[in-house]
Write a structure and sequence with these properties.
homodimer, alpha+beta, HIT family, subunit A, 5 strands, 30% helix, 22% strand
Chain lengths: 128, 128
Amino acid sequence: MGRLRIYEDDNFFIEKEESEIPWLKIFTKELYKELGDMPKELRKQLFEIFDIIEDEMKKYYNPAKINMASFGNMLPHVHLHVMARFEKDSYFPNPMWDEKLREADLDLADEEEFYKRVVEALKQFSLG
Amino acid sequence: MGRLRIYEDDNFFIEKEESEIPWLKIFTKELYKELGDMPKELRKQLFEIFDIIEDEMKKYYNPAKINMASFGNMLPHVHLHVMARFEKDSYFPNPMWDEKLREADLDLADEEEFYKRVVEALKQFSLG
């Protein structure tokens, strides 16, 4: 088991999902049921964090596509899924929750280095 | 077949997905592959439209949860899915792409009236 939480600040924390693909989840610390229940400024920050993760995923993994989702049906606590998708992952082009189409054939770069870059980019952003 | 496109302005159009649940898709007119490829101002507008739809869905249908997703793996054209979820829909609490859990038992208010309200709210917003 690797560490689940890769980043934390006053308002958010970021966890990785155990998966064959790079998959991060951005949580608010305060509990909100819906995105629209969040204060506007905080929601702006949530999407800025999404932006940074998307950008780092694109640069580091060169994925076929980035996927993003917000469900929270089981536990109504706002969190954004950010996933890097590849043509040879098990589900592509289906969403990760849909039917599996094949055995994955992925040779991905080191994830610890990716988390390091994400954390670095988030720190740069919060200092900027 | 009802009409698919319920709204259109200079930058966006909104289509309904044929589904047992209220489900709208917000498309950009210009083609962008990733959310991060959009000009910042346009992306802000995209999430403002999401906000308005979420808000109207909550008021009109009183759903258990709103779900949101952006995939575009098949056709890389930015679009946001906005779905109203109910405890008695076929998949709850699973995402709509996941395993079906039951036969839906839904008695939803008239969808044409809902679209009317969404369009009205979007027009108010663009005038405001």
